[in-house]
Amino acid sequence: MKQRRRWLIPIIIIAVLIIYCLVTYLVTPHVIVRPSFNEEAASELQLIELEELFAEKQALNIPLVEDIKIPSGNGDLRGWHLHQSSHTESNKIDLLLYFGGYNEDSATAALRFLKQMTDNDHFQDFDVAVVDWPGFGTSDGKPTDDNIRSASAAIFRYFRAKDNVRRIYLMGYSFGSGPATYAASLYEADGLILLAPYESAFDLYNSVTPVFYGPMKLLISFRMDAGEYANKVSIQPLIVYSEADQRVPMKYSIALSNHFSNEPVILSLSDVSHGDLTMDERILEAIDAYLQK
Predict the structure, then answer these.
(1) How far apart, in whole angstroms, are the C-alpha atoms of residue 290 and residue 284?
(2) What gap in Å lies between CA 84 and CA 96, rounded to an integer?
(3) Over the range 246-264, which residues count as b (16 or more CB within 10 Å of their CB) and which as e?
(4) Share of residues in the chain with pLDDT > 70 (%)
């Protein structure tokens, strides 16, 4: 009986460790990828789109709203294209292609861009496009790391294939900075803007629970190696980070900046929280200046 008890304790410990590792492996992707859909924002954009069509795209004096569907290997990706009122299908346009955060859907982001373009004249002469990741909004598929990388490539190719698109600037915020850097490593983008970027998906996990180092990295099933992608990017990026950012600490952004062969333009702030990085006027003005270079 005593011999059985001696074996029982290590067996229980091993079983608990196995269960812990399995649960961690399955649950951790949901820490940094949380599919969302703002139905109210989507309905508002659809209403604007209908009103513009009814008014022959003249009366509202705001960027023209177009819902878009992009075929990919894992189903259709859906989002929004905000056209500058001066642009037509025959004009050559410049495009700001935005890749959003871990729980940010395209409708929410598009409404924010629409307000910034209309009220404050940001992103002048640039169209803006925002597309949902697989599983976000009404896009098909599941938000795995492979699917998101494939989606970022498919989205870029979709716009690059358009005859009227002249230049494409990629912009990634937080989680979206990894896929944006990945797309820039594959294709010749004309610019790359990164807000609160990270060197690796491990950074995002460790900002929540700082235990994923050494062998513990094996428990991470979702990989996004932004530093590796940055090594292959030749353009000069704009990188923005803040000391007050607790979601993606600035040390992770600084680490990523060291991977680019073309020294980045850096905007370092001390007082902007993570959630305000896409709305701070100083940052928007720095983006405008970068777009007009």
Answers:
(1) 10
(2) 11
(3) ebbbbebbebbbebbeeeb
(4) 76
pLDDT tens readout for residues 85-129: 765 555 788 999 999 988 899 999 999 999 999 988 999 999 999
How many CB atoms are located within 10 Å of the residue 166 CB?
Answer: 12
H-only helix segments in 94-238 = 106-119, 145-160, 177-186, 201-208, 226-230
For tokens 């803040």, name the residue. 242
- Tell me how far apart the alpha carbons of residues 186 and 51 are, in angstroms, rounded to a whole number: 38
The per-residue DSSP string of 116-152 comes to: HHHHS--STTEEEEEEPPTTSTT--S---HHHHHHHH
Residue type, 23: V
pLDDT of 280 higher than 80? yes
- Cα R_g (the chain), whole angstroms: 21
Q: Domain containing 173 — which CATH number?
A: 3.40.50.1820
Q: Rounded to whole angstroms, how far apart are CA atoms 189 and 181?
A: 10
Sheet arrangement for strand 126-131: 64-72, 75-83, 126-131, 93-99, 165-173, 191-195, 238-242, 265-269
Residues 188 and 167: beta-carbon distance below 8 Å: no
Q: How confident is the model at residue 51 (pLDDT cuts 50, 70, 90)?
A: confident
Q: Domain total for the chain?
A: 1
For the segment 21-30, the average pLDDT, to the nearest whole number, is 54
Average pLDDT of the chain is 85
Tell me which residue range forms the domain holding 46: 2-291
In sequence order, the 6+-apart residues with CB closer than 8 A to the CB of 182 are 149, 152, 153, 224, 226, 229
